[in-house]
Amino acid sequence: MKILLVEDDALLGDGVYTGLNRENNFVDWVKNGESALSAIAETRYDCVILDIGLPKMSGLEVLQQLRKANNNVPVLILTAQDDISDRVKGLDAGADDYLVKPFEFAELCARLRALTRRTRGNASETIKYKNIIINTAAHTVEYNEAPVELSRREYTLLVEMITNQGRVLSRHTLEQKLYSWGDEIESNTIEVYIHHLRKKLYSELIKTVRGIGYIISKH
Ligand code: CA
Fold this sequence. Notes:
Blueprint: E1 2-6, H1 10-22, E2 26-30, H2 33-42, E3 47-51, H3 59-68, E4 75-79, H4 84-92, E5 97-100, H5 105-120, E6 126-129, E7 132-135, E8 140-143, E9 146-148, H6 152-163, E10 169-170, H7 171-178, H8 189-200, E11 207-209, E12 213-215
Parallel strand pairs: 1-2, 1-3, 3-4, 4-5
Antiparallel strand pairs: 6-7, 7-8, 8-9, 10-12, 11-12
Bound molecules: calcium ion.
């Protein structure tokens, strides 16, 4: 998953950032509302983790601006303990879920997965495509009932393409999903990952649309 983390607390932010990266995600981390809005304008995130208590522009204002601009990116807000009004205001402003600090990292992960399942319109942690089965909780992939070892980027690319089946995804869109800020992107990197997926799964799985991008046909 490509996630935007908006958190000004260095210690908490660092813990969440490191943990999410370890869990097969690609995370961009910003520390204030203005940077959050410009990041969201540039990148299609799978979800946003938004702290309400931010310096200057509050998380609530960020959320209100997003929804006013008809941006429907799934947002999970982080609120301070005991501040029920923040939670209510956040949900009213269009947050999809909330967590109260301090929280268990495992719960954050489970809620993020639930959020993206709802966005996909899929109630289960399993994504099936023909003979491919992806378990999004365990990050495992099976093909013809045999486990397939995928790298973090191969896995993310596969999930992204299958959940967008029937749609052509440009190289730029895919690059945004596979990299965080500061990662160096080599020029033919997406081609390389596509090549690996075709080899590890099957070659007709992903079709190249010349000059535009890649597509997995609708199942
Ligand atoms: Ca804060």
